[in-house]
Write a structure and sequence with these properties.
Structural class: alpha+beta
Oligomer: single chain
Distance between the termini: 30 Å
Shape: globular
Length: 86
């Protein structure tokens, strides 16, 4: 379960602490539905919120790393992003 409030995304669930994420991680959380690389997530964010302007894959990767660190998402066997310059 999650809520977006005051530019933060509050994520929690049964038997879990509620965690607040902010910045790029909010947009990453909102578009994550299926296994995706950081470049694919960045593309989806650009498509969903063109008013954000530049969305760097490196920022998305950092946000994904934070979500993984908090056990909110898990890494899969998808290859690491190396070719997307954004």
């Amino acid at each position: 379960m999650f809520r977006v409030l005051h530019n933060r995304c509050w994520i929690g669930g049964p038997e879990r602490s509620t965690i607040a994420v902010e910045g790029s991680a909010v947009f990453v959380w909102l578009v994550l539905e299926i296994e995706s690389t950081a470049a694919e997530v960045a593309t989806e964010i650009r498509h969903s919120w063109p008013e954000l302007g530049e969305v760097r894959t490196s920022d998305v990767q950092h946000a994904l790393d934070v979500l993984v660190m908090h056990d909110l998402v898990e890494r899969t066997g998808l290859p690491a992003d190396e070719s997307d310059p954004a």
